[in-house]
Amino acid sequence: MNPYRGRTTALTTKHGKGRAISRPLRMVLGLTVQVEAKIDTDLLGTFTGEIERVGTPSEVAIRKARLGMESSGLPLGLANEGSFGPHPAISLFMPTDHEMLVFVDDELGIIVVESCLSAETNYGYHTARSLNDLEPFLRQAKFPSHALIVRPNDGLKKGFVFKGVIDFVTLEDAVKRCAVASADGLAHVGTDMRAHVNPTRQKIIRHTACRLARRLATSCPACGTPGWGRIRSEPGLPCEFCHTATEMIKQEIFGCARCRYTEAKPRSDGRQYAEPGQCPYCNP
Ligand SMILES: [Zn+2]
Ligand SMILES: [Zn+2]
User: Which of 124, 159, 187, 253 is deepest in the core (most CB within 10 A)?
Assistant: First the structure.
């Protein structure tokens, strides 16, 4: 039996991620999620950049989880942090959604981090003088089922940030006003990545929560602490012609949240060799 059955964890979130995260944790672990919604997580930084985020996404998420643990008095805490943009390892032109979920257990003294990198995202932006300039972008952005944020293209100005825009009338008005307010006459229209107005992001968060739940249900083979899972991957898959080590992933390293025990496992897809096209010797 896993140690979290019948327990309650705090979840620090303002943007309605409660359902996406709590269901998998309840189903897989029997762990109840108590949403701490009154904490102003914007103090840790905002998506729109009014307040800059300090630290790595996991550092921000751990601070966020601790805020909820303090306000609820619970020794267990959860928080999510998403980052968006082109991913250098995949393609500079393909936007990605990198979701991270952090679980803090102060009784066991462990922090378990699970993440998911997905190419399924509407993330993007476009500049416009009027609604007419936005035609193909609005389809990519999945508007109006997904919200937009409009601001002047030359920067943030007080009173000219329109968040959570989900209808054409508001969008047209916001674009007009922000275009006039910008020195270059353009409005900056970007996807609103806050989870409660972005169903695609909700889906990736739910997927990440499923992974976290499975990880917390898996204990370390050496010491029995929950949270056993992949901690990093190592490159070096050999070329099938000359056996030179390539940049492709050779094996996954699994580790414990508490002790130093690790295990190396071969790639989950069973691949043992890289194609010569990936080889620094055969295809320099
Ligand atoms: Zn080779
Ligand atoms: Zn261990």
Answer: 187
